[in-house]
Specification:
alpha+beta, 7-stranded antiparallel beta sheet, globular
């Protein structure tokens, strides 16, 4: 099934869901350690960045500064869809909520400050119903 491209359909059907747990961004000097289960990995020239469950980072003694909540938008968005990231990040910004977006093949994933999670979901639900 092809992903949705229509912005109005994407917004009205996004069904934001807060995933359990708290997540942290860590940068590593070399490769990802064996046994680490990141939910996101980004290869950067300075070393890989991983987003991992906070308890995993703590258990391995990994350093981090940002503790996030993970929200999944449960609509299959096409990777070439235009405007979803801007609409979501823009609306959250209007409410003073920072947002780090990661596109997966099927869904978009948002990482917001952990203490803003419930408010972020409420803002996204409001955006969805007004679309």
């Amino acid at each position: 099934m092809a992903g949705e491209r229509d912005l109005q359909k994407l917004l009205s059907g996004m069904r934001p869901t807060l995933n359990p747990g708290r997540y942290v961004y860590c940068t590593l000097p070399a490769r990802v350690p064996a046994g680490l289960r990141p939910v996101v990995t980004v290869a950067e020239p300075e070393g890989p960045t991983v987003v991992v469950a906070q308890e995993e980072a703590d258990a391995l003694g990994l350093r981090y500064e940002y503790v996030a909540a993970w929200i999944t938008l449960h609509i299959h968005s096409a990777l070439e869809a235009v405007g979803l990231t801007a609409a979501v990040a823009g609306r959250l910004a209007e409410h003073g909520i920072s947002c780090n977006v990661v596109a997966g093949f099927h869904h978009d994933h948002l990482f917001v400050a952990a203490d803003e999670a419930d408010r972020a979901v409420a803002v996204l639900e409001e955006l969805s119903t007004s679309a």
